Amino acid sequence: MVEFVNEDFLLEFFSEGVSVIGNAQSLQERNYGKLIDSRKTLRFNWPNLNSKTGTRLNCLFCSLPKNIPNDYKFDLLISRTEKFHNNKYQYQIETQDVEAINKIVDPQTDYKRPSNGILCLYLLDKLHLKNVHIFGFDWKETPSTTTKLNKKKMTKQNDHDYESEMKVALCLIEKNQWRLYK
Predict the structure, then answer these.
(1) What are the strands of the beta sheet with 18-21, ordered from one edge?
(2) pLDDT tens digits for 27-56?
(3) Beta-strand runs (E) in 25-168
(4) What is the mean pLDDT of residues 114-140?
(5) At 83, which CATH number?
(6) H or E element that contains 44
(7) What's the predicted TM-score (pTM) here?
């Protein structure tokens, strides 16, 4: 049985710090695995686990939990839906948070939805977490490593406004003194 959790649970879960690992292909060119795995990890969708990107999977931030492979083992799912997987705990992103970040990222339009990456950073900011280390975010400078895993979904490359999201993310990183690894 999955237990639905609140923001107090998230604060406790990430109290020792968190490595937030995006799926940018540029991360494969680095060797951050040990550094990433030195604290709890938060990964997105279908993460690529290996020695360069780390092998620890504590939390998965995913829009489509029903598509998560059964062999993925993790404790916490953060999602926009109530559909869960084999995790122990789930936190559901609130609709008002999605709407709030969408207005910040792209106030001129209402058709581009925020990516999981910017929603995650917004949530961590809302929680006032300070020990946040961010890897694998290059805002589509390089392709996503999940492209080959999710080809059907990746045909919609214009679903998000990555340029605006990058500006917001860099502001959040500076405001909270988080660490961005390039």
Answers:
(1) 3-4, 89-92, 76-79, 59-61, 40-44, 18-21, 132-135, 179-180
(2) 999 999 999 999 999 999 888 899 999 999
(3) 40-44, 59-61, 76-79, 89-92, 132-135
(4) 95
(5) 3.90.1480.20
(6) strand 40-44
(7) 0.90
